C-alpha cells in the first residue's frame, strides 16, 4: 500500500507540472508569441535571425550602398546577414538560392535575377517556410513580396527633363540593356516617350552589363562620338543606369564635346561628384536612395518573419529627380543630399512601431 501511495503522488505532481506548462504556453500565445497577425507587436524571437541576400550582380557604388542598407537594418534588428554574389551567372544565382535553403537561413532577400532561374528555388524556400522578398525581378509567386524602384517614373522623369532642357527635336543616344526587369520597365517608358515626342531622333542605342560596365560603356561611347564627330550631331545621352551614365560622361568629357548633356538613372556618392562638376556632361539623374531600398526590403522580410498578415505583395518606391542646379558648389554626398533635395533621405516606409521597439531591445543588450 505504501508503494502504491507514492506512485499516485508522483502521477499527481506530473499532471500538475504538465498543466502549468500548457497554461504558460497558452498565455504566451495570447500575448502574441508568434507575432501579431495585424502587424502590431514583434516577437522576441526575431532577434538572431540569419538572413541571406542573393544578388545577380554586385557592381559599382549603388550595389555597395544597397548592401549597406540591408546590413544596417538587419543588424539593427539583431540579425546576421550573408551576401551571395552570383557575378551575373544566373545558374550560380539559382545554386546560391538552393544553398541558402539547405543551410536553413531564416529569411531570403533576392536582388535581380529572372523567373526562369529563380522560381523553382523560391517555391522550394516557401515550402520550407522561409519567407522571400525580391528587389527588381519579375517574380510572380503568391506569398513573395516584390520591391520596385518605380522604374516607369524614373525613366519618365529623366526623359521629360531631357526634352525640357533640349527641346522636342533633340538627337539622342540611348544606353540600355535587355534582360533585367527594371530595364524592361524603363524601356516601356522610353517607347511611350518616343510616341509622345516623334521629332526626337534616336541616333544610336547600345549597352551591356559586364563586370566593367562603366569602362565598356566609355569605349562604346567613344566609338559613337567618332561616328558623329561634329558639334551639334548629338544633343544628349539618355542612360538607363548610372554605370552607363558614368562611362558615357567620361567619354564625352575626354573628347571635349561639352555641348552634349547626359541624363541618368540611379545615384551614388561618385555620381554626385560628377553631376556637381561643371565640366562634366552629366546634369541630372532620377533615383531612389539605394541604402533606403535595402532597409525597406529588409523591413518587409521581417514583417513576414513576424507573421504580419498586412505585408504587401508589392511595394513601389518613389524616385526623386536630382539636377546640378539643385546642388551647391561644395561637395555633396548621399548622406547629406537631403539638405539640398528635400524629398531625399531616410524613408519611414514600412517602419513600424514594433520594429523601432525591436531596435531598442537590440541596442540595450
Taking the sheet with the most strands, its summary is: 6 strands, parallel
Please compute the radius of gyration using only Cα atoms: 26 Å
The average pLDDT score comes to: 88
Q: Report strand %.
A: 15-25%
Name the structural class: alpha/beta
Give the strand order of the largest sheet, numbering strands 1, 2, ... along the chain.
2-1-3-4-5-11
Main CATH class of the largest domain: Alpha Beta
Kindly report the name of the CATH homologous superfamily of the largest domain.
Response regulator
Report the strand count.
Answer: 12
The coarse overall form would be: globular
Order of helices and strands: HEHEHEHEEHEHEHEHEHEHEEH
Unreliable spans = 1-38
Could you say what the CATH architecture of the largest domain is? 3-Layer(aba) Sandwich
Distance between the termini: 55 Å
How large is the count of helical segments?
11
Tally the structural domains.
Answer: 2
CATH level-3 fold name of the largest domain: Rossmann fold
Helical content stands at 40-55%
